[in-house]
Design brief:
2 copies of one chain form a homodimer. Chain A is of the alpha/beta class. In chain A, 40% of the residues lie in helices and 25% in strands. The first copy, chain A, is built from 15 helices and 17 strands. Chain A has a 6-stranded mixed β-sheet with strand order 2-1-3-8-7-6, sandwiched between helices. In chain A, strand 10 and strand 11 form a beta hairpin. At the A-B interface, helix 1, helix 2, strand 2, strand 10 and helix 11 of A face helix 1, helix 2, strand 2, helix 10 and strand 14 of B.
């Protein structure tokens, strides 16, 4: 199935917003076995929209557009697509009732201009919008109109993510399964790893997975800051079994580095572990400046296991709040194994948490020395089993440094809980 | 000038990474008066690359590609573009010297496959890469080859952002100014505002700016979480004067809401203010979970003004670290004006900071009550002038809640410093 995606929006062309739709839709489609071959972004102008849709229908089995279905004068997609396909627009009674109901429930008067969203091209399948007003529209385009060969499908989706995402998952995916089924079954699995750089990971697993690749396994890597996803995908009746076997091999090879599957985040895993163990954590951060606490508290339910955090940027606070000793700072400095140790010990003692994580380091861009260059980090982990300090070196720009260091700290915590 | 952008990368088509190049390049070009009319993303395959470049050259005065210039077998752009243009590749001696120097400086042996990056198509202008190995390439394409009308420019840029960004700013922008000059002068100004929702902002300024719009001012809005940019742009010899006048009107209308220009972040402004005043701040966070501290410490040089932070998720820590009283928690609860007041007072007293910011609220998804629904926030600000507490209501998903609340806290701090 040849798929093209068209994102409309003048703010995209001015670089005012990031095109998150592109990633989200490509990812969702790929996970269902459909790969997008081309994505195009264009302005809201009528001419650009018509030209892009016409060209895409000249190549693809399926064309998906996002945006331009709203009630304002900028929203031209519905109208321009109907004109391109030579279909007239008529008011859909069910959609109009839903629009009126949407406003009634919110106790607001429906502005007249909203009625245009009940206009649909002849022959369209209507995808009701559960989280907004504009319905999605799916249109089958007759063979030969824009390309020789088979028919095409054209699906128009609304722009706002909280409308687009559920509409895609609940309505578009079933429609694709029915109208554009894959030739053969498809399965995929995303394994999330941390602690091993992409090149070493690839070296470690490409050999052992070679025989699965020979059997049709599609093996992909995606590196982000501090972590690498390994993506296993396969087509055919034995796809599920092939992936399960490859997964088993990977889990034997990397018993600790794989922290989860799908889109799970490292902080989700840590909060789940602590919740299951009924244990608590406190953090004492210097160079990460609150990022570890921020990541943990992004997880709903974190309050059951995360007691709190110290961000001790000033040395005086390391002393007064965490009990780091004058002599330690004088003899070894704030960025040292000893300080990290005392920070973790002091944080744990302050509230009786099961685990305390500490980080002290040099985020840069300034502050480095010959013996402790920018990027130097000491990471402490205190638990009932004592305190362990690890030295790391993360010579990156300031924000990458913070992200990588917070990842190492959360991963040290994850491994400690696993081992505990 | 009609511009098209082509981003190559199979990981884009699988939705594994976000296409940040698109936003960055579109934004940079727009700020220089060049608007991209179409952006296309395609896989790394030879056929897709050639087809996309051929089509773009059939329409545009300037085509920019990103990616595919590296040394691996996936990197096909240089080769496929040369073939498409009918140009042969030859080794550029200067580039080869730079490649060898790049490895010599890093005390690494240059792998043989890297030499391919010194291959350039006949007639190309070479854009040396200051931060990596693959040079950029600029090619003038003769009129009539892909479209009737004038010549086109084709510029190939490397994919890694830290190579792409300086190459674009330092080498591509001057090239554009020389080879594809704008018909008339262009000026633009981005004003960053916070504290006023987009619809109210538009209401407040569209009337007073009407006369400038009539004179050719292009007025745009871009809303992000907790803030709205107002973009002023104009063409023509009086563009600069028109924008300066419009800016003066906006600054009179919104004396406090405009916190900066360009890409400056609210946290940058706060750190700069404190640095200029030689003042310090400490934060006491509950529901924002460390995000305020994280944002402040993202700013290089923050350590001179940011003493530290408390993340007091557990009530016991609000008491032991900040001195919030038992009676206060019992009578008013942790999410209350009184608790926010005592948190700010206690944080400021703990270290003698000039300012202390406190936040306590209900991030959700659970924990709300009839009288204090999810989204309720109390925000305290302590200084030599006493403590002020503001109540806010941010009924959003957890991460948006944190972002908006941290923005309100930083903005309260900014306004207090201004007033102080």
């Amino acid at each position: 199935v040849n798929i093209e995606l068209i994102n409309t929006g003048s703010e995209l062309m001015l670089g005012r917003v990031l095109n998150t739709h592109q990633q989200w839709l490509c990812r969702q489609l790929a996970d269902h076995g459909y790969v997008v071959s081309r994505q195009v972004a264009i302005s809201d102008s009528a001419g650009d929209i018509q030209a892009a849709v016409r060209e895409a229908l000249g190549r693809a089995d399926l064309v998906i557009t996002t945006g331009g279905l709203g009630p304002t004068s900028d929203d031209l997609t519905r109208d321009r697509v109907a004109a391109l396909l030579g279909r007239s627009l008529h008011t859909d009674a069910d959609t109009l009732v839903r629009l009126e109901e949407f406003y009634r429930q919110r106790k607001r008067r429906m502005p007249d201009r909203v009625r245009v969203q009940a206009q649909v091209p002849t022959g369209a399948i209507i995808l009701p919008n559960q989280h907004g007003t504009a319905p999605g529209l799916a249109l089958e385009v007759e063979a030969g109109r824009f390309r020789s060969g088979g028919r095409s499908w054209l699906i128009l989706l609304p722009g706002p993510p909280r409308e687009l995402h559920p509409m895609f998952s609940n309505q578009v995916v079933p429609l694709l399964r029915e109208r554009l089924p894959l030739d053969q079954p498809y399965a995929c699995l995303n394994l999330r790893t941390t602690g091993i750089p992409e090149s070493r990971l690839e070296e470690a697993i490409s050999g052992p997975l070679e025989r699965f690749v020979a059997q049709g396994l599609d093996l992909g890597y995606c590196a982000r800051v501090g972590e690498v996803d390994v993506r296993l995908a396969a087509h055919g009746t034995s796809a599920g079994a092939l992936i399960a076997e490859a997964e088993a091999v990977l889990r034997r090879l990397l018993p600790e580095a794989i922290y989860g599957t799908g889109d799970v985040r490292l902080e989700d895993v840590v909060v789940r572990q602590l919740t299951e163990q009924k244990q608590t954590v406190i953090v004492a951060e210097s160079c990460t400046g609150g990022l570890i606490a921020h990541r943990l508290t992004n997880v709903p339910g974190a309050s059951a296991v995360f007691l709190g955090g110290f961000v001790t940027y000033a040395n005086a606070l390391k002393q007064s709040l965490l009990g780091v000793r004058d002599e330690t700072l004088a003899a070894h400095g704030a960025v040292s194994e000893e300080t990290a140790r005392e920070m973790a010990t002091g944080a744990r003692a302050s509230c009786g948490a099961d685990y305390a994580v500490s980080v002290t380091g040099i985020a840069g861009p300034s502050g480095g020395t010959e013996s402790k260059p920018v990027g130097t980090v000491f990471l402490g982990l205190a638990s009932v089993r004592g305190v362990e300090v690890t030295k790391c070196f993360n010579p990156f720009d300031r924000e990458t440094f913070k992200q990588v260091t917070s990842q190492q700290a959360l991963d040290a915590l994850r491994r400690a809980i696993l081992a505990g």
